[in-house]
Amino acid sequence: EDFRPRIVPYYRDPNKPYKKVLRTRYIQTELGFHERLFVAVLTSKATLNTLAVAVNKTVAHHFPRLLYFTGLRSAKVPHGMVLVAHGDERPIWLMYETMHYIHQHFGSDYDWFYIMQDDTYAQAEQIKALVTHLSINQDVYLGRAEEFIGGDEQARYCHGGFGYLLSRSLLLKLHQYLDSCRNEILSVRPDEWLGRCIIDFLGITCVSQLQGQHYRTYELAKNAEPEKEDEEEFQAALAVHPVVALMYRLHKRFSRFQLDRAYQEIQELQMQIRNLTSLTPAGEAGLTWPVGINAPFVPKSRFEVISWDYFTEQHLFSCPDGSPKCELSGASKADVSDVIESALEQLNSRYQPLLRFSKRQLLNGYRRFDPTRGMEYTLDLLLEAVTQKGHSHVLVKRVSLVRPLSKVEIIPMPYVTEATRVQLVLPLTVQDLDFVANFLDMFAMNTLDTHDNALLTLLFIYHPYDAQRVSQVDVFAGVKAMVGELEKRYAEVKIPWISVKTEVPSQVKLMDIVSKKHPVDTLFFLASVWTEINLEFLWQVFFPVHFQEFNPALVYRGEQAASSSTDFLRDGHFDKHSFAEACFYNSDYMTARTKLAADILDRDEVLESMEVFDVFLHYSGLHLFRAVEPGLVQKYALRSCNPRLSEELYHRCMLSNLEGLASRSHLAMALFEQEQANST
């Protein structure tokens, strides 16, 4: 019953004031589902930089969540490892503290807990597959069962060197007895101590087989050669122990086993598909190439045709910046080299030993991305074919290749919960005054009326001339009056403002001022005066590409604006030149800003050529998320581009204005009508 979803009826007390119901972002969280597997690696200060690093580089990224536990830690933790230090190297104490920590922090989040040592090699995929076949309703203590030292009883403990699996139900029952076990059970080995604790207080013994699943292990000999290990027991092992200096070689060997099994399964599936295709209405004509991959996308009109990009070994003739020709470099160059190499490998595997091919030149190359199947390539290769007798011949051969889409993975990203308070930051200049009223109205409607957990801070940017006259004429007096009216309407809301005097409103310098006035855990949403506030697209570091509406005078030319959703995207475009909106945590910004300060020293003029996006991109080390956001819409307005900013920022602002006028068809129609009017 603990694992069955329950419907909790919603009841609203009419005598209490309205309060927004906070719901989780994912239904999995609301229904109380748990993550599948948590992995704990027991290490030590002496082996942290050797064995633990080897585990981290080989199998750690295959597990959904993995932590390292040690008694004492070195001054510097290896990169990419989450380490928990308990402050004591005694083995029993380390095991006790680790079990207590796992229960306290992860006991309610995971169904299975896998404990291993840093001298253990575990086949991550097989471990994950194992837990999917076990029922979570039982108390499970699964591993390599061993007899207690000097004992003749039937009970067994799980050998720590080969890893062992604990169910959540067992962990929850065991936690209340951990203190008693620490005080009453004497043992030298931590795995024996834990096994004795589970047996004495829960009456559960270690097993190597459960619910039809076997926990297979392999004990590695002292002078073993992983490359020569071929026996079935070795290939089927879920865990290998002891591993001292062979972790990487073992990983390579087991990866080869997995790859061979995958290729064998692919061949068997393709054979089954070929056999079944003849029984379908289309017959063998319905067989796609490659076998088992989706058929190419068939366009229904000329507007849906996927274009091919032409390339050679040196140049690409479809460039990201729109230029007709650019040098082939980086990932694109590596991609082309890999495709050519794969083509030669396939040709030689098909025709050897009769013929052996070698590449002379890539004459023509074409590629396109088909979202239904992957990246397609067509290559015209100038080849030299050599026979068994040594005769050579030059020929041209066209080959087609497909790099299919692999298994889709969900990338874990920290998301903003409903309980997170969002701090909106709105920089304002004199040129923005005409649009402030609309922004505040939208803010009140979308956040204050809905009781969203959001605050607003205004950043008044005074020109030095206006700052000198602020006591006589305050250019932002109207805005401050509107803020006062808003605070009267919403008694619980306070909207602070910060005044800044500058001729060059650098985004980074302004953010520095705001950052110092807020706690490090603040989530900032940097907005512009044209932004229509919506809190549904907040992530850890997100720079959304807003949808910019075109100039209605050019799009509609006096006609009624279209209201249907089908014409929505026709009336605007996603403004890729604007980085005015951003979402990030203050702690992340402060960390990146500190690295930037150390890099530029006292050259503050460099900040005038940078935006917050550049700070995160070059100095944060975080994965930045930048994508189109249809929910972030801006009405058309001609931006004021400050010529005192850097040339790049000024040029980007001008491009944003020009491309935001209208589409090519709208501009062409406007020019046509103008010429018609002039001619008459």
Automatic annotation (TrEMBL):
UniProt GO cellular component terms: Golgi cisterna membrane
Top-level taxon of origin: Eukaryota
Record key words, sorted: Glycoprotein, Golgi apparatus, Membrane, Signal-anchor, Transferase, Transmembrane, Transmembrane helix
Record's bilayer topology term: Single-pass type II membrane protein
Compartments, as annotated in UniProt: Golgi apparatus, Golgi stack membrane
Annotated coiled-coil segments of the chain: none
Main subcellular location of this protein, as a coarse class: Golgi
Alphabetized Gene3D superfamilies for the sequence: 3.90.550.50
Gene Ontology terms, MF aspect: glucuronosyl-N-acetylgalactosaminyl-proteoglycan 4-beta-N-acetylgalactosaminyltransferase activity; N-acetylgalactosaminyl-proteoglycan 3-beta-glucuronosyltransferase activity
Group of enzyme by EC: transferase
Any one Pfam family match given in the protein's UniProt record, by short name: CHGN
InterPro entries: Chond_GalNAc, CS_glycosyltransferase
EC number of this enzyme: 2.4.1.-
Protein family: Belongs to the chondroitin N-acetylgalactosaminyltransferase family.
Name listed for the protein in its UniProt record: Hexosyltransferase
Lineage: Eukaryota, Metazoa, Chordata, Craniata, Vertebrata
